[in-house]
Amino acid sequence: MSRYRGPRFKKICRLGSLPGLTSKKPIVGSDLRNQSHFVKTLQYRIRLEEKQKLRFHYGLTERQLLKYVRIAAKAKGQTGQVLLQLLEMRLDNILFRLGMASTIPQARQLVNHRHILVNGHIVNIPSYRCKPEDIIMPRDEQKSRTMIQNSFNSSSRKQLPKHLTLQQFEYRGLVNQIIDTKWVGLKINELLVVEYYSRQT
140 vs 114, 117, 118, 134, CA distance in Å? Predict the structure, then answer.
């Protein structure tokens, strides 16, 4: 299944807030789910919705997400927490969390178009896994800096996760450490996602 390119607002009305997918907010009351609906909902559907939240928020294909689940299952620690750490440490997500892009798709485009340097080298792979002490900044070109400055100006100031440091006037971000899962920017039950994929891993 390919990456979702359809109407984003439709997805947040159904699944709830997905800040990485779009900066728009769902209209209060637009989510028609209620308690009696949840009682009747099958366990499979609940797991599927959690998986879809994760997939659309981070802009992944089905194959990419399954690959991350398999890597997380082989790693030390709880599979769900490792999965969230892997996704949060992607370069496109780090740019979004730093405020250098207003959405993850916009961050992906910046990376694909070779506007971003990691430790002084151009990286054009959005899924690049950032590590502690990585320094992330735009190329030393006016166009690259202007696009990032526009994102700083348009995005609302959010509390920066503790694993990141931003030097806004120098257009530079620093990865301090692997993210603690309590700082993940998406409300999700990652255990349901792991359960959804349990037969495929």
Answer: 11, 9, 12, 17
Pick the range with the lowest mean pLDDT from 14-18, 69-73, 126-130: 14-18
Domains and CATH numbers, the chain: 8-86+186-197 (1.10.1050.10), 90-177 (3.10.290.10)
- Provide the mean pLDDT of the chain: 85
Chain centroid to CA 195: 20
- Give tens-digit pLDDT for 119-133: 999 999 999 999 999
**Cα 178 to Cα 94, 130, 195, 199, distances in angstroms:** 11, 9, 24, 28
DSSP string of 93-137, one letter each residue: HHHHHHTSSSSHHHHHHHHHTT-EEETTEE---TT-B--TT-EEE
pLDDT digits (tens, 9 = 90+) for 36-46: 554 456 788 88
Q: What are the structure tokens assigned to 120, written together?
A: 């002084």
The alpha carbon of 34 is separated from its chain's Cα centroid by a whole number of angstroms, namely 27
Q: Rounded to an integer, what distance in angstroms lies between the CA atom of residue 107 and that of residue 15?
A: 22
Nearest one of 101, 126, 102, 128 to 112, comparing CA atoms: 126
Distance CA 132, CA 101 (A): 21
